[in-house]
From TrEMBL:
Source domain of life: Bacteria
Alphabetical list of NCBIfam families matching this protein: CobZ_N-term, PRK08274.1
Record-given protein name: Tricarballylate dehydrogenase
Limits of the FAD-dependent oxidoreductase 2 FAD-binding domain: 6-433
Species, as recorded: Pseudoponticoccus marisrubri
Length: 463
């Protein structure tokens, strides 16, 4: 494009691509500005595996049915009611139409993976993972004439009254200015700016790992908030999970997540348990463990399992620490050996009848007289060798973002910004007040990306 495009989409992940594809199919000239280099394009979407989808009866790879009310109840449980019900139900209802739309735009699906705790009914898994999805969308977008610039970082959007008049970005060492008719912001949260995290969380945030892309630094988000675009969400709320303590500071992705907590005990550096490891099935509870670990001394935790649980979960990319005795395991993990032995023995003594143990559903196999209790999957840890993993808080994305309405449109001063829309993680706080539900981030991104693309194109075509 030698002239200004009709629409600029800021970001290069799932939500941005859905917006760009919808806008291009509506006849608009679209340019994507992706801050990452091409090999790292796609934001956090590169690390995803599935999206959560309502459906009446079997749909694609999904079996049985998953109703709106059940979906919404699952969301309410993990968010504690901290959600915008209208927007949440919009995302849930629209998800059913998204799966065939995704297939028609190049995304392929596969049956649910082993070790994913029976998600075959609720979550559709991408063939090739998130990278396969991202690559499919880029092929589709480019075939539709969407122009993509990589290493193109947007530095400022100029808001005048109720519209964005121009935006600045850098590319190949030079500054550029565009005046598009419509702008879609899909540039994620601010989690890669650890100074911003520390301002929200305090010094403990310096010990957090960022499991997502290092390019989501919140530059566009901060710029718009500073200009009075309405915000939503709490800066301390985020999608934070417990990940392998050996993960890199940035971009460890899905392969660093640890799914063994339900079959373990989790202790802090004093070898003391601090929460019910069996509270609920893992897809509804894995996202609380990042915050739980963050509240422990030095923001670390340790998973302890024995040999009979080793094959029950999707492992981390790193092998577990192994030892023939608990004392040896404690030594390798830097835990007090006597205290770990006492904690495990106390847990084992509180375990009862384990004949009803069922790893993929709530089984009621619980401890008795133990604080905190373990309410499901409570089996003694007594079969060597013993295994351990260290845990750190891994932040995926933050929930402070741009407030949107049902048209994905942003507001300022209680008025819509006439040519500004937002989609994906940068507006997910409109629905996720706290907590997380597996696969729901991709649902939000897909639904609101499509809405934003259609609305931005309608505005551009009418201007």
């Amino acid at each position: 494009m030698t002239t200004d495009p009709d629409i600029v989409v800021i970001g290069g992940g799932n939500a941005a691509l859905c917006a760009a594809i919808e806008a291009a199919e509506a006849g608009a000239r679209v340019r994507i500005l992706e801050a990452a280099p091409k090999p790292y394009r796609g934001g956090n979407s590169r690390h995803t595996r599935n999206f959560r989808c309502m459906h009446h009866g079997p749909l694609g790879p999904l079996v049985d049915s998953y109703t709106e009310e059940e979906y919404f109840a699952d969301l309410m449980k993990v968010t504690g009611g901290e959600t915008d019900e209208d927007l949440a139900r919009l995302a849930i209802r629209a998800s059913e139409d998204c799966l065939p739309w995704m297939e028609s735009h190049g995304v392929r699906f596969q049956p649910s993976l082993s070790g994913t705790l029976s998600l075959a009914r609720t979550n559709a898994f991408f063939l090739g993972g998130g990278k396969g999805l991202v690559n499919a969308y880029y092929r589709t977008a480019e075939a539709l004439g969407v122009e993509v610039l990589y290493e193109a970082e947007v530095t400022h959007l100029e808001r005048e009254d109720d519209r964005i008049t121009w935006l600045d970005y850098t590319h190949e060492g030079q500054s550029h200015r565009l005046s598009p008719k419509s702008v879609v912001v899909a540039a994620g949260g601010f989690q890669a700016d650890t100074d911003w995290l520390a301002r929200a969380w305090g010094p403990a945030a310096k010990n957090f790992l960022i499991r997502g892309t290092p390019y989501n630094r919140g530059v566009v988000l901060a710029d718009l908030l500073d200009q009075g675009v309405e915000q939503v969400g709490d800066p301390t709320q985020c999608h934070a999970v417990a990940i392998d303590g050996r993960a890199p500071k940035f971009d460890g992705g899905i392969v660093t997540r640890l799914d063994c907590v339900p079959f373990s005990i989790v202790v802090n550096k004093e070898a003391e348990r601090f929460y019910d490891e069996g509270e609920d099935v893992w897809p509804k509870r894995y996202a609380i463990w990042g915050r739980l670990v963050a509240a422990q001394p030095d923001q670390v935790g340790y998973v302890i399992i024995d040999s009979k649980s080793l094959k029950l979960f999707m492992p981390s990319v790193f092998p577990p620490i192994e030892a023939d005795t608990l004392e040896e395991l404690a030594g390798k993990m830097g835990l007090p050996p006597d205290k770990l032995r006492a904690t495990v023995e106390g847990f084992n003594a509180a375990c009862g009848d384990t004949s009803g143990f069922h790893p993929t559903e709530l089984d009621g196999v619980a401890t008795t007289g133990l604080t905190p209790p373990k309410t499901n999957w409570a089996r003694p840890i007594n079969q060597p060798p013993f295994y351990g993993y260290s845990l750190r808080t891994g932040v995926t994305f933050t929930y402070l973002g741009l407030k949107v309405d049902a048209r994905a449109q942003c507001t300022a001063g209680n008025r819509p910004v006439s040519n500004l829309w937002a989609a994906g993680e940068t507006m997910a706080g409109s629905i996720l007040g706290q907590g997380y539900l597996a696969g729901f981030g991709m649902t939000i991104g897909t639904v609101f990306g499509r809405i934003a693309g259609k609305e931005a194109a309608a505005h551009a075509n009418a201007t």
